[in-house]
Design goal:
Elements: E1 2-3, E2 15-28, E3 31-37, E4 42-48, H1 54-62, E5 68-77, E6 85-96, H2 110-115, H3 117-120, H4 124-146, E7 150-151, E8 157-158, E9 170-173, E10 176-180, H5 185-195, E11 197-205, E12 218-227, H6 231-252, H7 254-259, H8 264-267, E13 276-278, H9 279-288, H10 302-309, E14 316-319, E15 332-333, E16 336-340, E17 342-347, E18 352-360, H11 364-373, H12 382-389, E19 395-401, H13 402-410
Parallel strand pairs: 1-2, 4-6, 7-11, 13-14
Antiparallel strand pairs: 2-3, 2-5, 3-4, 5-6, 8-10, 9-10, 11-12, 12-19, 14-17, 15-16, 17-18, 18-19
């Protein structure tokens, strides 16, 4: 019976055949232990000399790492195995013998592993990270569908930018200028005026010459927008969504979290409501912790965000930033015009901002004024202004960075491991 490693639990005591790769092996006298993987999971195949023909035993001992095989054996429950089962091997059929596989069980440098990313993905650690990423994507679609959102796809090529064009990739669109999108937000605002509650989920690009562990050149964003939605309601959606992601990973990726040695007790605390502090309170908190360099009106860097996050055991909202350091489309606080109705959600454990959101300006005259103040070309935003000309309503939204969220939930130090093929400063291979 042909099956997969993920399905062997349904075949205990039965003989099965699995298409697999040899991740690693060790031999001890008259027994060989084969670490096998098939994409769905990992399992140990035990080859005993007394139970197989001599040629099968010799093949098991000589198989090179990452060779592909059809392996046949009887499934046994095994409490000692991390996966709960092992395979008593009776036959091995070689599909392809891999020679001199470059990623061996020894330690390799990061640059070497990045050069071989197409192969590094096969490792147990990278397998666990990709499974957690997939679970977060699945939970995202599930959460928004359950809550009445419609998925709308934003364009990747745009003629304007939500936050200016200084960090955008420029290209020619026939005889016009165009940019790779840094956000689908403006288009989601248009879609929200048609469909009420929407979200986009796709790749975004920022030509930011940063080498920090939090930055990628190409990354994926989840960007909901909601008509008739206040700033407060927006925060509630965010904390419910993030909690839903964490619970989905806890419920469905326990083995992967164990592989990554993630402290799940920290994730189990992630339930609504999340703590909130204003930008003013954050500045005061930083001064109390010795950050004398930060002044009112400055944006927060990674050390500041980490210090703030360390004061809480859940993600924390920092609200009401100064208008001068935020994008043009954010609604000013009606009681204090120099700050805007916005919030950044800072993840615990030093992972930084995972969400930025706000109530959007819905007044035509104010939005036009802000576009002009930012020195943006008015003509490029005429369609965006149309949303305020024809049936404007209060509305709010946010953007969640997928890779930072995966890094936090999985407990990964660098975001480069959270995307299959990372694009970094000076790296576009493979």
């Amino acid at each position: 019976m042909k099956t997969t490693i993920a399905e062997v639990k349904h075949h205990v005591g039965q003989e099965v055949t699995i298409g697999a790769w040899l991740a690693n092996k060790r031999s001890s006298g008259k027994i060989s232990f084969l670490q096998l993987r098939d994409g769905t999971g990992f399992i140990q195949g035990v080859v005993e000399k007394k139970n197989v023909p001599e040629e099968v035993f010799q093949l098991a001992k000589s198989l090179p790492q990452e060779s592909s095989v059809y392996i046949t054996g009887t499934v046994h429950a095994d409490e000692r195995s991390p996966y709960g089962y092992e395979l008593a091997v009776t036959d091995i059929r070689v599909i392809h013998l891999a020679k001199d596989y470059p990623i061996t069980p020894k330690n390799h440098g990061t640059e070497f592993l990045m050069d071989h990313r197409h192969l590094w993905l096969r490792s147990r650690r990278q397998h666990a990270i990709m499974k957690i990423r997939d679970e977060i994507i699945h939970a995202t679609v599930e959460f928004f569908r359950k809550n009445g959102f419609v998925k709308v796809d934003a364009p990747i090529l745009t003629g304007s930018a939500p936050e200016g064009t200084t960090e955008l990739f420029h290209t020619k669109y026939f005889d016009e200028d165009a940019y790779l999108s840094q956000s689908g937000q403006l288009y989601m605002e248009a879609a929200a005026m048609a469909l009420g509650k929407v979200y986009s989920f796709g790749p975004t690009f920022r030509a930011e010459k940063s080498k920090t562990r939090r930055h990628l050149i190409e990354f994926w964003m989840v960007e909901p927008e909601m008509a008739f939605c206040s700033f407060e309601e927006n925060l509630q959606v965010q904390e419910n969504y993030v909690s839903y992601l964490v619970q989905s990973v806890l419920n469905n990726c326990r083995q992967e979290l164990k592989t990554l040695e993630r402290d799940v007790s920290k994730l189990e605390k992630v339930t609504p409501p999340f703590p909130r502090i204003t930008y003013d309170e954050a500045i005061k908190l930083l001064h109390e912790q010795g950050f004398d360099d930060i002044q009112w009106g400055d944006d927060f860097g990674a050390p500041h965000e980490t210090a703030i996050a360390n004061s809480f055991d859940k993600p924390v909202f920092i609200t009401h930033y100064p208008k001068a350091i935020k994008p043009f489309y954010m609604e000013p606080d009606p009681e204090r015009k120099e700050v805007v109705l916005c919030a950044d959600l800072i993840a615990p454990e030093g992972y930084g901002e995972i969400i930025g959101g706000s109530e959007r300006i819905h007044d035509y005259d104010l939005l036009k004024q802000r576009i002009e103040e930012f020195g943006l070309p008015l003509q490029a935003y005429e369609w965006y202004l149309d949303l305020r000309r024809y049936g404007s309503v209060p509305h709010s939204g946010f953007g969640l960075g997928l890779e930072r969220t995966v890094a936090w939930i999985a407990g990964i130090e660098h975001v480069r491991e959270t995307i299959p093929f990372p694009r970094l400063l000076n790296r576009i291979y493979p």
